Amino acid sequence: MRIVLGVSAGIAAYKAVHLLRLMREDGHQVDVIPTPASEQFVGRATWEAISGRPVTTSVFSGIDEVRHVRLGQEADLIVVAPATADLLARVRAGMADDLLTTTLLATEAPILLVPAMHTEMWTSAATAENVATLRSRGLEVMEPAVGRLTGKDTGPGRLPEPEEIHVRVNELLAVAQGPGGASAPLAGTFDAPDSEAQPPLLGRRVVVTAGGTREPLDPVRYLGNRSSGKQGLALAEAAAAAGAQVHLIAGIMDVTAPDLPNITAEHIETAAQLRAAVERATDGADLLLMAAAVADFRPADYAAQKIKKTEDGTNPVITLERNPDILAETVQRRAQQGTGPTVIVGFAAETGSADAEPLELARAKLLRKGCDLLVLNQVGENLVFGRDETEIHILSSPELSDQAQDANRGEPVSMRGTKRQAAEAILAAAAAYVV
C-alpha cells in the first residue's frame, strides 16, 4: 500500500528513520515529505536511501504532475512523526505553506499524527485545543509517550517508540483496506462531522468521571490506585467533539484536563467527594460515564499525625471500611426518584480470579449494579493503566439488549485500539439510547 510519511522539525525525527524502515520491510511504498526545517535533524539523502523514492520539501518540484495533489490522492495513509506543536497548529488552521501541509490538506486518506514536543508545550491550552479540534475532524492524534525528553527533563511529550507507531499504522491500513480490499470505516466510532451532519450528541449534557481517588491514612500517606485518567479524558474530549456539553469530574490523573469551551472540570480527591460531585452534576444529565477508578475501601480511622515506626518493631494495624457504591447509588436514585442520567455507563477493571474469567465477572457486575452499559477492561501491572492502547468489551443490560434489533444482541461489543478510539466506540453505543 502507499504511505506518505511526514516528518516535522523535532529532535525525535531520528526515530522516524526506523519507522520508515519498518514500513518498507512490510512491502509498502513510502514517500517521505520532510518539512524544510526538519532537514536540520535528518538529511534528504537518508530518506531517499531508505525509502528508495525521491524526496523534496518544495511544492515547486514536479509542478507538471501537481505533486502535492497526487501524493494526497494516491495515499492509503498519511503518517506524520514527529508532529511538532507548530505542525499541529498549522494543520488545524488549514495552512498550506510547504509540501507536507499542502498534501495533508489535499488528501482524503486517513491521517495519523504522532506528537513529540516538550511537556509544557503538549499540556498548553493552545495545543490541547488544537488536538481536540483535529480529532473532531476525524484525524487521529496519538498520545505522546511519557519519558526522558531533550536535556534532563522527563514527562509526557516523548515520541512513542517506532514499533508502537508501526503497530498502529498496520491497524489503520487494515481498516482502510477492509474486506476484499475495499475501504471501510472503524466500527463503533463516530464519523468525522461535516458541515451538514448534526453531531450525534449536540446539545446533550454528559458527565464523565476520570482518574483515581485517594483515601488519606495520615497527613502524608493514602490508599490509591494506578489509574492515569487517560480513558476518562478521552471520553470527555470525544463527547465534546460530538457536540455535548461535558462536565468532567477529575480525580487524581497523570494528564491535564483540556481547556475547551464545552468542557467544565471539577477536581476531587476522595470517594466521598466524588459521590457528592456526581449527585450534583447528574441531575438532568443525559449521559453519565463512570470511568473513574474509585477506591473500594478507605481507612476507618484517619491519623492526625504521621504514623511512626514503633521501637519494638510491631506493625501497625490498619482497619479498612467500604466506600459508598456511587454507580449503584446513582442507578437506584434514578429508579426511585425518576431523576438522573438517561443512560448510565459503568466501568469494570477486572483481573479475573481463580474461579472466573474477567468477562464472567463483568456480566455479574452489570446485573449487580443495574447500569445500562458496562465497559470491561482487563487490567494488571502491565495492562491498560497509563497506556495509550486498550482493549474493551461493551456489555448491555438485559433491558437494552431486548431493544436491540441485530442478531448479536446480548453479546459484548469488543474492540482494540487507542483510548480515543475506545471512547468513540463507547459513545457510539451509549448515544443510541440517549433520547
Description:
With 435 residues, the protein is of the alpha/beta class. The chain folds into two domains: 2-181, Flavin prenyltransferase-like (Rossmann fold, 3-Layer(aba) Sandwich), CATH 3.40.50; 205-306 and 313-431, Rossmann fold (3-Layer(aba) Sandwich). It has helices spanning 13-25, 44-51, 67-74, 85-93, 99-105, 119-122, 125-136, 162-177, 230-241, 271-281, 326-337, 358-369, 398-403, 419-431, and strands at residues 2-7, 29-34, 77-83, 111-115, 140-141, 145-148, 154-158, 205-210, 215-216, 222-223, 245-250, 263-267, 287-290, 297-299, 320-322, 343-350, 373-378, 389-396, 413-418. Helix 12 links the parallel strand 16 (343-350) and strand 17 (373-378). Helix 1 (13-25) packs parallel to helix 2, helix 1 (13-25) crosses helix 8 and helix 9 (230-241) packs across helix 14 (419-431). The model is unreliable at 179-196 and 404-409 (pLDDT under 50). In the N-terminal section; belongs to the HFCD (homo-oligomeric flavin containing Cys decarboxylase) superfamily. In the C-terminal section; belongs to the PPC synthetase family. Residues 1-205 are annotated as: Phosphopantothenoylcysteine decarboxylase. Residues 206-435 are annotated as: Phosphopantothenate--cysteine ligase. GO terms for molecular function: phosphopantothenate--cysteine ligase activity; phosphopantothenoylcysteine decarboxylase activity.
